Amino acid sequence: MLNPVHPINVLILTPYVTVLKETPEMNTTGIDQIMIPQELFLMLGLISLVENVLVVAAIIKNRNLHCPMYYFICCLAVSDLLVSVGNVAETMFMLLTEHRLLIVTAKMLQHLDNVIDIMICTSVVSSLSFLCTIAADRYITIFYALRYHSIMTTRRAVSIIVAVWMVSISSSSLFIVYHTYNAAIACLVTFFGLTLVFTAVLYLHMFNLAHVHSRHIMALHKGRRQATSMKGAITITILLGVFIICWGPFFLHLILILTCPTSSYCSYYFSHFNIFLILIICNSLIDPLIYAYRSQELRKTLKELVFCSCCFVI
What we know:
Blueprint: H1 38-61, H2 68-98, H3 106-143, H4 148-151, H5 154-177, H6 182-212, H7 214-218, H8 223-259, H9 264-270, H10 273-294, H11 296-313
Helix pairs in contact: 1-2, 1-10, 1-11, 2-3, 2-5, 2-10, 3-5, 3-6, 3-8, 6-8, 8-10, 10-11
């Protein structure tokens, strides 16, 4: 059932922290949640929603951005979009029911809760997957530049995208179905750790070899392409860093659920859950700013879209 304490109850569906699904009156575990106004969740969610819609629209509109890397970035924006949509939908739902503008049954609440949980879970799994995919794409671009177009074809990129979304949705659905099992949480935490290790190793190798061979590469006619590829790699490194900062506290929360669910120290950490949710939403809000800052072509298209939208409104 939806938590009237905070607008998103992402993935925390275990008996150890049932307080996260209780009202203050129902709270019998002694954990006092740090309260954050629902209006703040709604405002951040709407800003993030608009930003990511603009990014997706810009990539679709600009043919110069029709390449595998930007296809993957577009999917990353869609992943962020899922968080934004889930946040806005649940916050609006909570505000409407709180002011008695909408009357629903417990069954309807449960269904909505499950849908939003699946959306958020799909978002985190797909985000991690596409970060790894983009890292691999940049690796191929830098070290297999002459064979890149034969290795990463548009058809192959589309196949990867379809596979990632299918796996993300199916695994997220299974996770929600078996949310009461510690094994489900352990699998999600393990996936998070493995993807981070894979990406970190890839980038360390990438930047190390790129630095060693930089002089040889710049001597060739492919120097400009190499610089562009490294710029793309740096962009994704920034995205990965922001992802870890914003999602890290949440995954630490999951780890503590498995290791010390009844400890007073862990309980104190659990009380900051709403702050972790704000960080997750901020990740969806910051990512589009990184895309725009690091890509002149994307930034130009975004400006055109914003200008056209303003003219249309006027």
